């Protein structure tokens, strides 16, 4: 993939929504904005993390806050570029390219909008290989790279620059600003040299998203064929197949938090899966036992179309398949587990890789 | 007054605490920091607002948040200059002088610290002529001057730059940052040209503070003589004389909020005054009827020493005199009353100047 055109955007939006594990925002809104940007400014050039200029500066562009809000509080359109350029001016250095901070319906699209509007290359990488709810949950953090200076803005035009003593403080201050700005804000953070991008990012996530999206959107393949190919290219596992019977959620401190219950379609088996989420799906339990744990990806797709299901579109009666993809190896280190493992989110489970849980019978 | 030396600091700390109407922080801590700065760097040069360079930039340096916190969370010492210089760098223009944003124990002292450490002149003015609890409550706001760009920092070293679409948004975003930073932060905001300082500031507040402090601290004068001189130089009124019998307060959203009851010393008269405060004293009622209303100043002083009483040092049994000083004429306009009048703070009283209330019998 050398250019992102309209067709690539359609694929990336779907694929990134899957990797977004329920978070990362509604793919529809993000996609429409990116399509409109590419339509106006032309396709976006993609470069591999291997091709970056090691001395130059690259930054993510992203949305922060509860994705639910985006449905009601539409972006104005100029905020993506405004926040990016504000950071550039503050750094006093030209930013040579943009990349997604995470995979997700909205956050895979915003860098495309910025790249198109500013005629910058998009680097084929991200900082998570999935989506996570907090700023410090990036592989850059694991590599000692600061989240700040960062810029933050809202659709009204308010702007903040934040520089903190550590990445947890960046999360705290940006989160309270996001909440005050109306529970959603645009950010550009974590300025990296090309060398840091090469070393610390997760490579080829944009391409992977596009490939996933192409499979899900295929008109030639049958549902089960698509599903098998998905598992194949992601190394994922088929965990459960059922109907959502309960969803509890609330928006607190700028997050969508909650829990869903999925019951097996053959009710007589009595099997059920509970999934806990904070923007993203974090923990899946089957009959009370863990079958997938953060940082491994827990993804829901529509049973028929395999369209990724975001946490804000969960509803009673929806039939879904639950799959889990192994997380990037950087997350499976001690500092990775400390940063995004089950205990960080308040769940008293020891992280066990999904492939080990599957060996012990977690799979369908 | 051409220089602020140790003696002037002692006087200003006391006088500004009186004008601080209960808010503006504990005068002791602020004073100690200023004395130490002047001791290390030498006396601070004071210039009149008439002497500023009309084209140059001048900014306040201040503390934001609940003053109570300052007693437990001591400043580190470098944050006053750090935030000021951060704003200067962000503006890309040399700041030629500093001034207090308000009168108050702490906020009259911080500009002295910055002026001493950076060898800058202190402009003899402020933005309130008293203290008020919110950022947009400055005469600069009434004159259409923006609170931002502003810089904010904490004692840990976290820094924010805020640029907003209006001054109420500046207050909202800076307030949430202040709360997250631990309910107290240092700011430098409202950058003004010299011309704006001349036109929009309240002139000679530093000198007035010093004169008030000199009277209160005088060793020659008797208490009643001091009191009479105070009323004379401020145009103030003697409203009540009594004993604090109840104090209700809580820290919420970064403010000290509460209410006190003062009973007349001759209990048989049954007279009592209630004063409502939000950092600063805002409303005084005598037997349920208003005797002084924001923006006019409601000041408490110790019955014997005439030392100003801050809201954080209120306690049962303390004997106090309540006086009220007419606010600056800029506050008594329609936009002034809209910004800081009783209704803004949620009290359903029509603003009436204290001199009119006194005519109707509010005085002792």
Helix and strand arrangement:
Two copies of one chain form a homodimer.
Chain A: E1 3-4, H1 6-19, H2 27-41, E2 44-47, E3 57-60, E4 62-65, H3 67-72, H4 79-91, E5 95-99, H5 110-118, E6 122-123, E7 125-126, H6 139-142, E8 150-153, E9 159-163, H7 167-180, E10 184-188, E11 192-193, H8 194-200, E12 202-203, H9 205-217, H10 223-234, E13 237-252, E14 255-264, E15 272-278, E16 280-286, E17 289-293, E18 297-302, E19 319-325, H11 334-340, H12 354-362
Parallel strand pairs in A: 2-6, 3-5
Antiparallel strand pairs in A: 1-2, 3-11, 4-10, 7-12, 8-9, 8-10, 13-14, 13-19, 14-15, 15-16, 16-17, 18-19
Helix pairs in contact in A: 1-2, 1-9, 2-5, 9-10
Description:
The structure is a homodimer of 364-residue chains. With 364 residues, the first copy, chain A, is an alpha+beta fold. Chain A has 2 domains: 3-205, 3-Layer(aba) Sandwich (CV3147-like fold), CATH 3.40.1610; 226-362, CV3147-like (Beta Barrel). Helices cover 34% and strands 27% of the residues of chain A. Chain A has 12 helices and 19 strands. Chain A has a 7-stranded antiparallel beta sheet. In chain A, strands 4-10-8-9 form a 4-stranded antiparallel beta sheet, sandwiched between helices. In chain A, strand 14 and strand 15 (272-278) form a beta hairpin. Chain A is globular. The A-B interface holds A 90, 156-165, 169, 172-173, 176-177, 179-181 and B 90, 156-165, 169, 172-173, 176-177, 179-181. Strand 9 of chain A pairs antiparallel with strand 9 (159-163) of chain B.
